[in-house]
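Customer escalation, tier 2.

The customer says the design service returned an amino acid string that "doesn't look like it belongs to this structure." They asked us to rerun it and document both sides in this ticket. The original structure tokens are below, unchanged.
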């Protein structure tokens, strides 16, 4: 399915969001780098997909009822072989059933383990006055506790993308702090611009959350993605 078809069919089914696998596919089609994730609906399928991807892999719960996957025991990282993958599948199902009884578990996403990078977050939300707005910040506590984020109204110019990255207090971290790998600033700008363009083309999207993105010296990859849809009119 094309980007628009995935979005339209989800919306016509009355769904209000795309799962991780669908969100990443749609974003990749829009030229935004993410880890490639596939949906496995059984333990055997998860193992088979893991083997095809190559170890180590990551398994994450796919459920319309689970928003914060790791809080619910729904994320298993660094699975080294088939046995670990099979066990992780069962662990995820058991954790979700224990932590959120009655949650509808569609399966798990299977993806390769991404190399660690500088964690950044990009989001889109809609302001009642300004319409779609993009948010940029560093990952983890910088965003959650210190609210060290920058906002720009869609559509962004190259200048907007440049300045929003540079205005956060944590900017020195992106330049490479104490021997840490610097982040590919041009690629971050490109990602903001591509997302801005994508958002402009899709009025039916209400919210986007790329949290986190791992930024590297060369390139970046979004390891988690969520797209929330507007409720279908009529
Ligand atoms: P959630 O935000 O719903 O808890 P995430 O998909 O963000 O779930 O996963 C939780 C954390 O696991 C991420 O913040 C990231 O640090 C790590 N992670 C997720 N996917 C990968 C991946 N493919 N490779 C490496 N680390 C990952
Ligand atoms: Mg996340």
């Amino acid at each position: 399915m094309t980007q628009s078809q995935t979005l339209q069919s989800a919306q016509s089914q009355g769904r209000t969001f795309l799962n991780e696998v669908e969100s990443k596919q749609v974003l990749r089609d829009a030229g935004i780098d993410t880890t490639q994730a596939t949906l496995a609906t059984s333990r055997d399928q998860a193992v088979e997909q893991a083997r095809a991807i190559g170890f180590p892999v990551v398994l994450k719960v796919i459920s319309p009822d689970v928003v914060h996957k790791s809080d619910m025991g729904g994320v298993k990282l660094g699975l080294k072989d088939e046995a670990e993958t099979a066990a992780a599948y069962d662990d995820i199902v058991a954790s979700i059933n224990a932590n959120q009884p009655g949650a509808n578990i569609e399966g798990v996403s299977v993806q390769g383990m991404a190399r660690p990078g500088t964690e950044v977050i990009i989001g889109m939300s809609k302001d009642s006055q300004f319409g779609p707005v993009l948010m940029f910040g560093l990952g983890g506590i910088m965003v959650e506790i210190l609210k060290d984020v920058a906002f720009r109204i869609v559509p962004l110019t190259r200048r907007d993308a440049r300045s929003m990255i540079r205005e956060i207090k944590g900017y020195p971290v992106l330049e490479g702090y104490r021997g840490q790998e610097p982040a590919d600033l041009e690629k971050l700008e490109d990602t903001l611009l591509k997302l801005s363009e994508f958002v402009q083309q899709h009025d039916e999207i209400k919210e986007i959350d790329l949290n986190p993105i791992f930024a590297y010296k060369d390139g970046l990859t979004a390891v988690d993605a969520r797209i929330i849809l507007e409720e279908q009119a009529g």
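Tier 2 assessment: The sequence is consistent with the input. Residues 82-99 form the longest helix (18 residues). The CA atoms of residues 133 and 153 lie 4 Å apart. Sent an explanation to the customer and offered a walkthrough call.
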